[in-house]
Amino acid sequence: MLLSGALVLINRMDTGEANFSSLMEIIGDIQKGFNSPVNKITRMSDEEENFLGHEIFERTKFSNEEFSVSSAYVASLAEGLVQNVNRKGIKYKFHLLRSSQVNAFSLPGGQILVTTGMLNFLQSESELAAILGHEISHVDLRHCVEFFQLEASMDKLGNCIPVRGIGNVMVKIPANTAVFLNRLNTMGFNKFQEFDADLAGLKIVALSGYMPDSVIAAMTRFKERFEKSEPSSPSRNPIEEIGQGLKVAADSYFNSHPAMEERIEKVKTVLKRDNSKFAGKSWYKGKENLEKRVPRSTKEFPNEFSEMNPY
């Protein structure tokens, strides 16, 4: 998930909220420490990860994928963003899912999924770039594939079947991809990975010439809209959703991405610290681009350029 990549669904509790947060932080610390040595030993090549992501996506059979002017718009915008990643061997592919839910998430191998609800919620192309930049960063920083490898090594994905991939290398794929998406939904990335993806996503946005504080604008609106609202179907099992064709692994992007206030403050701190890199420059917002579903690479509107407000 700019606000977390893939997906972390935190179920609200009537009591013990602080204790639960503390527990998740401890789990995150342990997970962060455990991931590194395990995945250095078993690290997949980019080609193997591409194959893994493709197989997971194809086997999940997202029946609500949309092919339209909007999906072409997302793909065109994203094409420019991925020029600023570090791992050039990942073959990114962007998918638009028909769903009123506001969400976006990433899978190994650069499979990035965005809902039409998210597209309609955002207010500018630069905000969409921020969301995509965050999800791209989860892939670029190996968060997605490392999550898969950790879950598989702990036998959390059920039966995994070997599939012959690149160079006749056998890659294990979950027999039931819904199990993997459910684990991604209920566990997700730890907060350190989220912070890393926030900052890496910010870098992608800035290098692409988009308004850097669009990251904050999107985060703030998510917080204002969703922090006091309950998920539409809080008791629904994500696997059940997949079976019904929703193919969205959490109820909303906000509920999928915890500690919003803390993350907003961290991004603001970076913008303030590196103000000299951002101040006095003209950045692109692209409100009209989003409204018309015309990417900046096709048409730039002169009135969309402005300087960033100081922090």
Q: How many angstroms does the end-to-end distance come to?
A: 25 Å
Enumerate the strands of the largest sheet in spatial order, edge to edge or round the barrel.
Answer: 1-2-4-3
Order of helices and strands: HHEHEEEHHHEEHHHHHHHEHE
Secondary structure class reads alpha+beta
Count of helix runs = 14
Give the radius of gyration.
19 Å
Number of domains: 1
Sheet-strand content, in percent, reads 5-15%
What oligomeric arrangement do these chains adopt? Answer: single chain
Characterize the biggest β-sheet. Answer: 4 strands, mixed
Let me know the number of strands: 8
Low-confidence stretches: 2-41, 161-170, 230-252
> Which percent bin holds the helix content?
40-55%
User: How would the global form be characterised?
Assistant: globular
Estimate the mean pLDDT confidence: 75
Fold and architecture overview:
With 311 residues, the protein is α+β, with helices and mostly antiparallel strands. The protein has one domain (17-298). Helices cover 52% and strands 10% of the residues. It has 14 helices and eight strands. The chain has helices spanning 17-41, 46-60, 69-81, 116-121, 125-140, 143-153, 177-186, 191-207, 214-226, 238-244, 253-256, 260-273, 275-278, 287-292; strands at residues 65-66, 93-97, 104-107, 111-115, 160-164, 170-174, 283-284, 305-306. The strands form three sheets. A four-stranded mixed β-sheet has the order 1-2-4-3, with helices on both faces. Strands 5-6 form a two-stranded antiparallel sheet. α3 (69-81) crosses α5 and α5 packs across α9. The chain is globular and about 45 Å long. Residues 2-41, 161-170 and 230-252 have low confidence and may be disordered.
